[in-house]
Design a protein that fits this description.
The protein has five helices and five strands; from the N terminus they run βαβαβαβααβ. With 147 residues, it is of the alpha/beta class.
């Protein structure tokens, strides 16, 4: 497990001490692995609602992406400060296909995802991100329960 990809879904609730990161750091230390922190944002739309200024919307979206990028860089730096090699990626795209594409490109050995306890049973019907990966991924997926 030299390359571990962590898909970070919720920036607001993730920190270096969150269960998702703690489990990932344990694995990375145990296997002397590298951690790839990935956050996927949806494709941007160039069309603004008729009552919103397009320039203001673009400015707000850019500011949000800048904040998310800075957060990921800080999270990677915190991991490195704790002795784990880490890189952060902010990528635009569809969640499942982007995770799959990046896992191949980065030669990932394990994908780590946060999972709410109630999501898996409901997800079978609703096809959430985790279940979309199950049938398509060639490497193991580890789910970390989050509150």
């Amino acid at each position: 497990m030299k390359n571990i990809l962590v898909a970070i879904d919720e920036i607001e609730t993730t920190s270096i001490t969150s269960p998702l990161m703690e489990r990932t750091m344990e694995l990375a230390r145990a296997f002397s692995g590298k951690v790839w922190l990935i956050h996927i944002v949806p494709h941007s739309s160039d069309t603004a609602p008729f009552n919103i200024d397009k320039q203001a919307l673009r400015h707000e979206a850019a500011a949000e992406l800048r904040n998310e990028h800075e957060f990921l860089q800080t999270l990677a730096r915190c991991a490195r400060d704790r002795g784990v090699e880490a890189k952060a990626l902010l990528i635009e795209g569809a969640t499942v296909s982007t995770i799959l594409k990046e896992s191949v490109r980065l030669d990932i050995d394990l994908i780590v995802l946060g999972c709410r306890r109630h999501r898996l049973p409901y997800g079978i019907l609703a096809e959430f991100t985790e279940e979309g990966l199950l049938g398509s991924c060639s490497c193991p997926i580890m789910y970390v329960p989050i509150q």
